[in-house]
Amino acid sequence: MTPIRKAITATLCAAAVYSLPVAAQTPSPVAAVEAQQDRTERVAQQIWDWAELGYLELRSSGLLRSELRSEGFALREGVAGIPTAFIAEWGEGGPVIALLAEFDALPGINQSAAPVREPVEGKGAAHACGHNLFGAGSLTAAIAIKEWLEATGTPGRVRLYGTPAEEGGSGKVYMVRAGLFDDVDFTVDWHPDDENSAAARTTLANRSAKFRFRGVSAHAAGAPERARSALDGVEAMNMMVNMMREHTSMDTRIHYVITEGGAAPNVVPDFAEVFYYVRHSDADEVRALWERLESTARGAAMGTGTTVDWEIIHGNNPKLVNETLQQALDTKLRELGGFTYTDAEKEWASEISASLGDSAKPLDQVGEIQPYDITLGYGSTDVGDVSWATPTVSLRAATWVPGTSSHSWQSAAASGHSIGVKGAQFAAKAMAVMAAELYLNPELRAAARAEFDASRGPDYVYESLLGDRDPPLDYRK
Hints:
The protein is an alpha/beta fold and 477 residues long. It has helices at residues 3-9, 29-34, 37-50, 58-70, 131-152, 171-177, 230-244, 283-304, 323-336, 343-354, 383-389, 409-415, 418-440, 442-456, and strands at residues 74-77, 86-92, 96-101, 106-107, 125-126, 156-162, 186-193, 200-202, 205-214, 253-260, 271-280, 307-316, 374-376, 392-398.
């Protein structure tokens, strides 16, 4: 049985929840989060406005670093060979607890904060995955934990990892590969969503690459016999991959876009490029599928008289869930409760909801914590690699109108609205109380670490899906 399947089916800690009541933590880190409402909103809005793409998030990263520096955090900047990656730390002694902060936007979509489809002219990207909220919420949580540690005299260190280029750039993988998580005891993570949940959700492993075909250009009508179309190579590869899909296992996901295919029909293109993603729940199966993908590229080039090469852009391991931590966080979420919309927010959200069709859910769901379970998520994230380096616990917070899909104009709009900030504040509270729990509760720490060691196995050796390549700092240019 693969580690990912073990994670899905394990019930190691079903009978025990290691958790102290929120009320027992005095002074409460929740109050410290609430006091920073204005900061969360200001930072989230600014990063939303900038909407910077992966590895190009100079202003967004700089803003987070500036806020942390002003609060007394020690910073390491430009880590793992990435100008926008950083580590901020406060405290001494005790456990090291890491928080993750993302801040990159998505290309090819943009939207104002209106509840109707309203693209912003001249803006080629948007926070349709809510990473502006992710970064701001984690920032607030880190500062709240610092204040709690200071006020209580609790030994421990809190670290905020500024992690660029989650969207197809695998920024965290380079940070894990560089050993930057080697001395972290636990990592607390969150992500924007349309519901509040601490369910144990695994992810798919994935790898991507840009396949570049080169041929010979000529006049498509006057001298077609002289040409060898690079676009033919791309299309032949795509055809073979689409036939290959029938002969893959159920967890397989393969998708692509043609990023360059020529400029005019009467000019046979001498260059064409296709960008592929391959996903599966098992990292070894991704490697096996990848060999088949490379074979289609070679065959397509041979059959069309072109040449081909490719560059691996990113690769993520599947997430290793830790049920001990997830169940403890689930308890914390239920003690915190959800939140509600104001009348104005309800009116705004109702318009968004009307655009969702059959996907729409009741708006009062934002006040609920979803049932705890173990699920296989079909997305992928570089948090997966972090989870194999250190025990990791994650939550999802309702920053979007219930029923909203990520990577949509509706999620981009909500990420720039007050309801998104409410979700980020809720996530910050959950992260802060979970961190306080870990600092105070040695039994929880021991149980979580025991599960982590058992899940990885005694012979575990980390291997990234990126190989030894350097970060692709220009992949979004």
